[in-house]
Amino acid sequence: MAGPMSASPGLRLCLAASVLAGALGCATARNDDDPLGPVIVGPQAAAPRGPGDLRAVTFNIKFAEHVDRAADLLSRPGPLADPDVLVVEEMDAPGTEALARALGLNYVFVPAAVHPASHRDMGVAILSPWALEDARRILLPHPHRTRKVRRSAAVATARTAGGPVRVYAVHLETPLGASGGARRGQARAILAVGVAGTRVGGPDRPDFRARPPTGVLL
Length: 218
Known about the structure:
By secondary structure, the protein is an alpha+beta fold.
């Protein structure tokens, strides 16, 4: 009769790595579920530029790392330089402030959750040379399958030379973290606020004093 099986050192190492990866993967976020929760607005200054075509840039900086490199890239001549609106995903408050300072832009940052991987309060940001007003957050439905991160969108009105433009900074859940139907539900939650022009305090906190701006940029 065969004796107890013993795993080789290499197999034991692989099994240990798998257990560790599984444990890390099960770590969950600490969400801020208040529709009127924190919205961080930096110092505001008017843009010294005239009316023209509205240029928007979106950029993802993984866990707000190497913000200095992102600032250098966004400062170079080319299609990313001098946007009217810059939407940045996976940011934290210090990273947003540093990026805005480096680019000379106003900013709004909306934290959503303390992410289990970075252990920092992560969210989305809107940066612009134009003054940003009436900044709000939109809580999105359908948290991540395992990490339970609940995302939020940032909303603000950019006072451009061509008129006010309502900007929505959005970072939908990944296909790994949510089904296609759940991701569409997140998009519908944002569109419901944008189309109504009133429910800017969250789905359960209508604000009927709000008025639709001249344009909407999603």
